[in-house]
Specification:
Blueprint lengths: L2 H12 L3 H11 L11 H15 L18 E3 L9 E11 L2 E10 L4 E5 L4 E6 L8 E6 L5 E6 L3 E9 L3 E10 L5 E8 L4 E8 L3 E8 L5 E8 L4 E8 L5 E7 L4 E7 L3 E8 L12 E6 L4 E6 L4 E8 L3 H5 L6 H11 L11 E3 L3 E10 L7 E4 L6 E4 L4 E6 L4 E7 L5 E9 L2 E8 L5 E4 L1
Parallel strand pairs: 17-21
Antiparallel strand pairs: 1-29, 2-3, 3-4, 4-5, 6-7, 7-8, 8-9, 10-11, 11-12, 12-13, 14-15, 15-16, 16-17, 18-19, 19-20, 20-22, 23-24, 24-25, 25-26, 27-28, 28-29
Amino acid sequence: MSAAQQLIAHYLKTNNLTRTLEAFELELNKKFDCSVEESLETILKDRLAYLSLEKPEFENTKSLWTVDAPKSHETLELGTLKSLVISSSFVKLEIGTKCLSLGLFVTNNKQVHFFDLEKRRNLLVKNDLHGSTATKLVAGVDGTDILFSCGMDGKLRVWRASYDNELQLELLSEDQLHKRLVLQMKFKQMDRKSGFLVSTGWDSKLVATKVNLQDGTIEKLNEVNLLTRASCLLITADSSNYPVILVGRTDTSMVGVYTIHDRIFEIGRLALNDSEFSSHSFHPMAFAKIESDSVVAATNHIPYMRLITFKIPAIADLIGVEETEVAAKIAAASVLATDSESFQTNVTIRRNIIVSNFNSMSPQDKFSDPIVKTRPHKDGIWIFGDDGIVRGFDVGAGSVVEELKTHEGRIKSAFVAEVGNTETIVSCGAVDRVASVWQ
């Protein structure tokens, strides 16, 4: 006789359901002695108590969402004739006394649109930022007149913008960053005169470049050979005033932590997998910084993206010194660092850094390229889904609080910015090829 049948018989007998027990025995043609080590009720209570431990206690969780979300929706007239926008970004340029809030849109027909989001008009359309080579990425430095562009050939160009009734660009410098396609580039301004541009490419290299913001000159510092291709990139600054670069890679849930002295090099790794001996079940695909020391990683889980919030350790904590000793330790480590990442490493691997791990309810497949963006001066993040829906997500409570039905099918690129003191969400569809704006 099965254990389940014995448990049922014991339950019927202990509750004086004798006629039901007799019918049960007749139906099965078995006689039960009704002796068990643990009753059915006890087993069910234990099981329900265990399941309750997995459920987040939303009523006791701090909400991280600012309620005033955009409600007004319209389409941007880029004049692209239904061209696919392959990348987009936002920059707030300061040209003399003039301030421009620009959306930068790169299309698959080699055009780059410099769109004034306040006046809702195209200021400039360029077909030859990289000559006969198609442009892949365009970005700018807020509060300056400096712009960057990367071509499909891996070249970086630095431009100065000027405005006298119309927007004009002056080429300041260029350099070959990668042998092939540049996947991502992020810039961090360190002082008024300079900053670091970090890029990843299809060649599985991580490249650091120092940029002079006054004359636009660039100095390529070095490149690091990654074990696998980079999947996501984020750059921020530590309290020690050194840059902190987070690099996610395909085929591993470990996040590389890098900094820059006179070169870029690895100083630690962060484990996004709760299992101590496993690091290959998933990998991060996008980062969004939400607080001074917290980051949300969007993963490649299917059928729904997961959002893992984790803390960024201070550089002093990672390298095991006091805050006052960071500069000396970084300088010494820079001399000994290599330009190749390896499985066997002497850097600190930090575990138990995960704050939360939630299902985003945003559908995706193995071909998806997740997009998550933080909100300027507000709590929460926006998720740009493969189903064309822009979801507002409370990373504190772990719930979807807003759903903006925006596109027909997958969203190819997006950014969130503050335009005229108003939160502005801009997204570009891969299927409907529409540039949409919520305010």
